[in-house]
Amino acid sequence: MTPGLVVFVGAGPGAADLITLRGARALAHADVVLFDALTDPALRDIAPRARWVHVGKRGFEDSTQQAAINALLVKHAQTGQTVVRLKGGDPSVFGRLEEELEALADAGIACEVVPGVTAALAAAADSQRPLTRRGTGRSVSLSTAMTRESELRSSRTADTEVFYMAGKQLAALARRLLAAGWSSQTPVSVVSRAGWLDSLQSDHSVASLGHAAMLHAGRPSVVTVGVGALPVAGQPPIGRLPTAVQRPLETRRHELAQTKP
Amino acid sequence: MTPGLVVFVGAGPGAADLITLRGARALAHADVVLFDALTDPALRDIAPRARWVHVGKRGFEDSTQQAAINALLVKHAQTGQTVVRLKGGDPSVFGRLEEELEALADAGIACEVVPGVTAALAAAADSQRPLTRRGTGRSVSLSTAMTRESELRSSRTADTEVFYMAGKQLAALARRLLAAGWSSQTPVSVVSRAGWLDSLQSDHSVASLGHAAMLHAGRPSVVTVGVGALPVAGQPPIGRLPTAVQRPLETRRHELAQTKP
Prior knowledge:
Two copies of one chain form a homodimer. The first copy, chain A, is built from seven helices and eleven strands. With 261 residues, chain A is an alpha/beta fold. In chain A, helix 2 (63-78) packs across helix 3. Strand 6 (139-144) of chain A pairs antiparallel with strand 6 of chain B.
């Protein structure tokens, strides 16, 4: 039997229409789709003939679960099927891609990786706050607020720093940011459910970042610190802390949808 | 007259099929598309009814040119048209988005930003080298090798650092990396024309990075330094310097295309 193929596809931050055309085409050709949690059900419409297998991992997945996913990938590919491994965001950024590529290399199975929109980019787009700024914002760093050992990390290494998966740890992240040398008045933008119609953005400072926790509770959040958190000059002002103001981001998207029939 | 709308769309790294579905839909609804150089002509098929206006900027664009682009955006939107401003990669990363958003805010014109795949992600996908690695690669930084003042910068701030627009300055970048504290044996992966069928990847060390210049001459390149430059364990070995080995990346993509009729 001809061995199958595994295509890793970045689904983007969640909403189905932020997948790439190449990713959508891979889905349309898939026999099996292995997917995590947090995926827009509308993605299923792109791959109606595929078998969808939920292998959801959330937060601190354990190695047993990863081994099971690796084994499933190999098993399906070895029966000659075209397997799409659908990952949130971009597969190469906090996607645990390495372990799965290793398992497939060990089994001699060909792979393809289709990139996707990582959450930091969707948060910047929704909030219209570019991560790089002329003259002042020349570097961007992406990191998780938590290490594998559940130890909260922070740093001050780039003009703009974006933290993934910081949701429940915002007050602790703020303390670490101060310890890393960021001033208490450094602007911080928190965006939850980036890319979705109900995306929310709020403005904070490092000192008051903890206030964002309740606002974005239960919603996947991205925390942007530094120059890239600032609103663009001339844009409508957004309310300031201590009353973090929610900014409904769906407005512009609805306008867009209604622009043309 | 109802004012128009400007939609900034990240086209991805170049190949038309790396645009998002949302970006493609915005193109399909556009009256006018303002685009830069380096864009896949196949994108035009997505917006056949739009007027395509080339506002190409390359390298060190001057402020005069930026002002002209700003004025064009405002002019077209003020006549009630739906304008797509198509940008390579992601608009929020090295896309000069801030200036254009400011000009539109000043004119009171509504905007939307659709994120895209930034080049670092496409390079990681093509080379199957995840930017984050379990335990060892927890942070990624994105920066340009050149500042606006054409002064070459480098740093050692994250486990993996990705440099954009380093093409002609690789030997100089290597010297700066050494000065920033990276060891001469640090792995470096260079990918040019990421996301395209003729994408090329080569392996180097910081010490020998200069050798990549001829190999990738004239092709937009991304330089990845550190943990994220390492091949995944078990994957077929890639030739080592001093004879930088070109790795044809189209192979897997052709396999994929032929998998299904």
